[in-house]
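Board notes (copied after class):
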Amino acid sequence: MHKLPMTKVGFDQLTNELENLKRVKRPEVVKAIAEARAHGDLKENAEYHAAKEQQGMIEARIKKLESDLSHSQVIDVTALPPDNRVVFGSTVELVNVDTDQKVRYQIVGEGEADLKLGKISYLSPIAKGIIGKSEGTEVEIQTPNGLLMFEILKVYYL
């Protein structure tokens, strides 16, 4: 399996989630299963079945996080010399040439992407279209919404 690029912040968030699942959530669900089991007949015990289902989801998430973290390649953009080029982890201010609408995105790993927070995956059409380009460059990007033309206004290494 190839390495999954990830920002330092994303790596830390996943590590914290994994620790919380192992130290807090897993023991809570084990306790809930034990309490439900003490109530007797397991066939008709809704609390038991709900707790077992939750346990399965927690264990699946732990397994996924452990896999992602073990295959991750942490890229700390703040350690890179700023050269005004768009790279993984950088934050980019773009303007749509046709509409003058400005947008700001950080290019992150697939598991970190959250458009509401302005974080786009390095695999997205926009990220693919701007990675390696410099401030002041105009780029044409084929998106699901059609062909868009952006100008790279500013690149930040935050």
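Comment from the instructor: The chain has two domains: 4-75, 77-156. The mean pLDDT is 92.
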